[in-house]
């Protein structure tokens, strides 16, 4: 027994390996798409409800691309931190 009341593992604790860089990049790209399409949905809803936006369709698509890149980058940067702080619980 170790000091925290659990079983002693003999120092050879086996952990599941984290996701590969390719898997993290794919996940981040998908989150980027979610962010970009969500922005487009919100912009379309605003056009329907309140009228025109101060930018045209090209500006809205450019802003959506910027939101997609930002949300994808944030997802890539923070995914490994969230995974290590909150490991997957098996119940």
Automatic annotation (TrEMBL):
Organism expressing this protein natively: Halorubrum yunnanense
Keyword Plastid set for record: no
The entry's keywords: Membrane, Transmembrane, Transmembrane helix
Origin: domain of life: Archaea
Segments of this protein annotated with the region Disordered: 1-22
Keyword Transmembrane: yes
Membrane-spanning residues: 28-49, 55-78
Coiled coil: none
Domain called DUF7981: residue spans: 22-85
Identification of the protein by name: DUF7981 domain-containing protein
Pfam families xref list: DUF7981 (PF25938)
């Amino acid at each position: 027994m170790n000091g925290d009341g659990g079983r002693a593992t003999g120092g050879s604790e086996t952990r599941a390996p984290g996701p590969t860089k390719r898997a993290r990049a794919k996940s981040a790209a998908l989150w980027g798409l979610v962010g970009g399409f969500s922005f487009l949905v919100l912009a379309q809803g605003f056009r329907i409800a309140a009228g025109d936006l101060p930018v045209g369709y090209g500006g809205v698509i450019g802003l959506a691309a910027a939101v997609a890149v930002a949300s994808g980058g944030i997802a890539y940067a923070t995914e490994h931190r969230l995974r290590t702080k909150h490991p997957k619980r098996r119940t």
